[in-house]
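Bumping with the actual sequence this time:
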Amino acid sequence: MRELSVVVTCTERKISPVTPSLQVHTLPDVAIDQRVAIWNERLAQASGQTSLSNLYKGEQWAQSRALTGAAARAGWTPKLWVASAGLGLQPVSEQAPPYGATFSSGHVDSVASTNADRRIWWDHLQRRRGAANLRELGEQGPVLLVLSESYSRILQAELRELGRLGGDVLLLGGDREVPGIHRVPSNRALRHALGGTLTSLNARMAISWVGHCSPGGPLTAPDTVAAWGKWAAESEKQETYDRRPMTDEEVRAFILTAVRANPNCSKTKLLRLLREEGMACEQKRFATLYVETMGDG
């Protein structure tokens, strides 16, 4: 069976709380290369190291792991890799402590305030910690990428290098087309058919894709592209929102419960989670209630 490199993004949810020293927002305000060096030292000295396979939790991670099982059933020997704003590109066998780092904008633990600086952070992090880059994975065989928009923007240079190889590469999600890579944009109209929340949609699409592959055949074989495209077209169902309004007390209770479960969750992420559960709250009102509940913005 051929080896397949499966690359997914890390998740915000970890198996245990993150200590302050391993939250990016506690780094000193110095040059990015210095911040990365300090971050690397903190990671190396931290206790509570565990494999990445066991470090993350939540629906998105569960579906990422399920994807490797689907790939194995489709005739590959999958190896799961994680693209992490805190660790670089790592196999899931790598050891790390719980940490708080992201490329998402507006998050307290975003590694930088602009995409340009986030790319600089990634470059320095990869040089210090990365176990491989995307081109190296492509040189070993087919690559299946499941990337959010924010991570795809930061990994653009590596994606272009991977595309230049002209190999068998599939990207689920991402933020733009990349020459040499077959991309399937995230399609929320498939959520009705695939189930789950929007955070796991790209991984669920990838599971569906490999289920359409011929055993031992290329990941992006024309027959597979056609078969999955036909299935997707027949399965699309545009979502309509019929969210239930909430009282101020219900919104405050939701915020407290969600923050206790995930202390690093941003205000924007909290509102998205609330809406994904079928609840309604206008953004400005939610922000006001958040400040009243948590005591800051």
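The tokens above came from a reply further down the thread. The chain has a mean pLDDT of 92.
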